[in-house]
């Protein structure tokens, strides 16, 4: 494999895993974010059951992305983790609360209102922490001598808070559009009414982040606006406008699947924009993917395992979604 740049391959694997997690666990978290708005009883039960068969499997991609970063880019892991410790702790606690609440909501009906609150708070906390982490990385991390040199709260800034709110709205959009597709009757109607305001809020937040990002660092500005590259990068906001228009049109037409796929397209375009801004840096202006990469022998060894594990995960995930492709009911899944 001497002729293959394994660092690029591993960057692609981790990028794919992160995007898969954002998409698949995003609508799970989005349902939790919107959960208090749904009526107690049939609406909440149907919303829960729409993700019950797949929610825990969706988090596999988070493990793959985090584990891959640790194994393939240990220097990046050693810098990013200390810079975002409070956020990582908050995210993990949120995911734990969300998972426990998901299970005990059915097993402990007496305390179901408590578990509903825990499910929603855990989802909001995890989503917000992920968004703030993204903002913290984009705005830059202070590095000195291949180590994090900043403070405990260097991640905290207006920009990172806006990205946190944007991810919460974005996940809520995924959750609402997923419920339009997978539920019916009152739950579907509620989701359809929610999709428009959270969609507009997501687009406003995305526009704000897109406008602010080029001013964070000169490299970002140059990548987006310097000729001739701007002829290509300008296609990203153009596609966002097209997807946004299609999303609004699909809601007006009463479509069930198209709103969800347009929401996915918006996330994909956001991911592309992130790549345009950052690549090849994993820590902007400080560490490139080649600086952070593990030895080639380690990358080759891990690639063999990934070549086996990733197709298995994809096959199982596809099978699970196919088996449970119909509309969700109100019966408990246990």
Automatic annotation (TrEMBL):
Q: Which residues form the signal peptide?
A: none
Which molecular function term from Gene Ontology is one that the record holds? Answer: oxidoreductase activity, acting on diphenols and related substances as donors, oxygen as acceptor
Membrane-topology descriptor: Multi-pass membrane protein
Q: Where does the record say this protein resides? A: Cell membrane
Q: Does the keyword Transmembrane apply?
A: yes
Q: Membrane-crossing residues?
A: 6-39, 85-102, 114-138, 158-181, 193-212, 224-248, 260-281, 301-324
Q: Give GO terms for biological process.
A: aerobic electron transport chain
Q: Which domain of life is it from?
A: Bacteria
Q: What is its main location?
A: membrane
An example GO CC term for this entry is: cytochrome complex
Key words of the record: Cell membrane, Membrane, Transmembrane, Transmembrane helix
**Coiled-coil stretches:** none
Quick check: keyword Transmembrane in the entry? yes
Q: Which family does it belong to?
A: Belongs to the cytochrome ubiquinol oxidase subunit 2 family.
Q: Which PANTHER family match?
A: CYTOCHROME BD2 SUBUNIT II
Which protein are we looking at? Cytochrome d ubiquinol oxidase subunit II
Q: Which gene encodes it?
A: cydB
């Amino acid at each position: 494999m001497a002729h293959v740049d394994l660092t690029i391959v591993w960057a692609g694997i981790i990028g794919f895993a992160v995007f898969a997690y954002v998409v698949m666990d995003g609508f799970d978290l989005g349902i939790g974010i919107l959960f208090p708005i749904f009526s107690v009883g049939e609406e909440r039960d149907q919303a829960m059951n729409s993700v019950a068969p797949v929610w825990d499997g969706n988090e596999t991609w988070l493990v793959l992305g985090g584990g891959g970063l640790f194994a393939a880019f240990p220097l990046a892991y050693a810098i990013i983790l200390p810079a975002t410790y409070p956020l990582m702790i908050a995210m993990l606690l949120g995911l734990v609360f969300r998972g426990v609440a998901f299970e005990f909501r059915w097993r402990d009906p007496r305390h179901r209102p408590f578990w509903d609150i825990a499910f929603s708070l855990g989802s909001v906390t995890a989503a917000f922490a992920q968004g703030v982490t993204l903002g913290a990385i984009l705005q830059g991390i202070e590095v000195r001598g291949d180590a994090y040199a900043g403070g405990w709260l260097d991640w905290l800034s207006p920009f990172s808070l806006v990205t946190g709110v944007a991810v919460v709205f974005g996940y809520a959009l995924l959750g609402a559009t997923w419920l339009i597709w997978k539920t019916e009757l009152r739950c579907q109607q509620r989701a359809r009414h929610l999709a428009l305001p959270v969609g507009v809020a997501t687009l406003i937040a995305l526009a704000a982040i897109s406008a602010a990002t080029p001013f964070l660092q000169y490299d970002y500005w140059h990548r987006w606006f310097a000729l001739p590259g701007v002829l290509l990068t300008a296609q990203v906001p153009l596609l966002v406008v097209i997807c946004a228009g299609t999303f609004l049109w699909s809601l007006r037409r009463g479509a069930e699947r198209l709103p969800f796929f347009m929401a996915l397209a918006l996330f994909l375009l956001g991911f592309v924009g992130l790549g345009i801004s950052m690549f090849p840096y994993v820590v902007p202006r400080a560490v490139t993917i080649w600086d952070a990469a593990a030895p080639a022998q380690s990358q080759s060894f891990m690639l063999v395992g990934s070549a086996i594990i990733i197709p298995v995960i994809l096959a199982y995930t596809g099978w699970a979604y196919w088996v449970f492709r119909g509309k969700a009911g109100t019966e408990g899944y246990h």
